[in-house]
Design brief:
By secondary structure, the protein is mostly beta strands. The chain contains two helices and 14 strands; from the N terminus they run E-E-E-E-H-E-E-E-H-E-E-E-E-E-E-E. The two termini are 27 Å apart.
């Protein structure tokens, strides 16, 4: 559920467990979730840090990933977190000094970190956009979503600047689990360049938007 493949789970002083990860596998967002046990259930994610390298090195298609906690290196009442930086653009060897871990700290006592666990609402639990697979992908990737009530469904693709790329679904759908293949092309059928793209699921019930959910996808040529 938006948790990267590389993550860490650490016990907090109050006995709860903190899950630290990069949102959507590779993104500029470091996020956490809180649980009573190391296997969950966990709260909704909270973004605690936006990695500046994605914007700073956008010309090199920089990605940040692998956020992890290091409690054994942390000071009392703090949690040390690291993340890594990589690039997929041309000229990456010109900026070779960026390939090293970054470290950030969060306070255990901050209200937004140790607030009471949030439970998923019925609405959010009823609709889910899965992370595409494979990710990164080269030619095609599978995108799945789930709905448990009949609703108007729109699934669009955008680039990182928010520009519309392609509509994949625009229909009223019955409850079920759906999957489709995106071939990395835009609305005009043109093959897109390497980069990060966003799939966005939009649900509309009774004329009102219920939820927007997004996932980041990495296209590599």
């Amino acid at each position: 559920d938006r948790v990267s493949q590389e993550f860490s789970i650490s016990q907090l002083p109050n006995g709860q467990f903190i899950l630290v990860f990069q949102l959507d596998t590779m993104s500029e967002s470091v996020a956490i979730r809180i649980g009573d046990t190391p296997v969950g259930p966990f709260s909704l994610y909270k973004t605690i840090y936006t990695c500046p390298e994605v914007v700073e090195y956008s010309a090199y298609s920089a990605v940040t990933y692998c956020a992890k906690a290091h409690p054994h290196l942390s000071k009392p009442d703090e949690l040390l977190i690291s993340y890594n930086v990589n690039t997929i653009g041309n000229g990456s060897f010109d900026i070779g000094d960026i390939y090293h871990p970054r470290f950030i700290k969060i306070k255990f006592g901050e209200e937004e970190i140790l607030a009471n666990k949030e439970e998923r609402t019925t609405v959010i639990g009823s609709f889910n956009l899965a992370q595409n697979f494979p990710n990164p992908f080269n030619a095609t990737t599978c995108i799945g979503y789930k709905i448990t009530r009949q609703a108007d469904v729109v699934l669009n693709i955008y680039d990182m600047s928010g520009r519309f790329v392609r509509n994949l679904v625009h229909t009223q759908a019955a409850p079920g689990v759906y999957q489709l293949i995106w071939d990395g092309r835009n609305a005009d059928g043109q093959i897109l360049p390497s980069g990060i793209y966003i799939s966005q699921l939009k649900i509309n019930e009774a004329g009102q938007d219920v939820i927007h959910e997004s996932r980041k996808m990495l296209l590599v040529k």
